[in-house]
Design a protein that fits this description.
The chain is of the alpha/beta class. It has two domains: 126 residues, 3-Layer(aba) Sandwich (Rossmann fold); 132 residues, Response regulator (Rossmann fold, 3-Layer(aba) Sandwich), CATH 3.40.50. 48% of the residues lie in helices and 18% in strands. The chain contains ten helices and ten strands. The chain has a five-stranded parallel beta sheet, with helices on both faces. A five-stranded parallel beta sheet has the order 7-6-8-9-10, sandwiched between helices. Strand 1, helix 1 and strand 2 form a beta-alpha-beta unit. Helix 1 packs across helix 5 and helix 7 runs parallel beside helix 8. About 7% of the residues have low confidence.
Length: 297
Amino acid sequence: MKISVLLVEDSKVITKLILSLLNKADSIEFEVSTAASFKEAKQLLETQQYACVLLDLTLPDSAANDTYSRLHSIIPDIPIVVTSGSSNDQLALNAMKRGAQDYLLKSDLSARLLAKAITYSIERKKLLLEAEEKEKVLRLQLEAAEAKISRQNKLLGKNKTTACSQDFDLQLSKEEAKRILLVEDSVVNQKLTTIMLEKLGLEVSVAENGEKAIQAFQEQPYHLVLMDIQMPVMDGVTATKALRESYGPEEKVVIIALSATASDEMKETFQKTGFNEVLTKPVDPEILDQTFAQYLR
């Protein structure tokens, strides 16, 4: 198995270290090109194809906070694993929120960790791209179905009803059900996750971003929040910090992060910012059930 990788790193010492570690990887052959600046990386990407990019955030010709976004705009379909010599969690969170597949500290690098980060990021990116295509199709189907329902309701003289829950019998009565707030910007993910939650006997409210989630809390309390990380207007990390400041610690309000990219290192980082738990999307119904059994006793 051969994987082509672009290593963007200005330090000759770190470049030599990473090349050495990748050469030691078991059962995988890495074909690595190197670039010491953003300019060099851009030139290579214009002429060659890569399966993954290892990106140092602090390059001589690019500010750390902007490096990922600049490169991602050039190669939106190629997974990027960011690396940094800094232990600044905010850099990691910023890169992950913008779509980085993983984040590695240079001080923690090993042959196994690098190989795992690269191969997993390639697979995750592939799944994300497939999911985005399916979401586009499902969104069109949902819009067509809702338009049909709207036309039928107008003919019958009824108000438009909301989609989803009537085909599913809840295990608990509405009065007994736990109130759950789902914070998710994808319409398809909203509907699919709502179906899973209602099958577990839960009463679900939906907010499309972090700002809406905070507004929802001002109207009524919730037992548990499922919070997507990457959202417009206000991301999940910012919203969770705000909710913690206003409504107390982890024991009082349970907030579970939903992330398409969540390595063990990032899960630990998310938990430090106030999340009780981190689940990887797409969410497995069985894992969701087990998680709720743990927090909603």
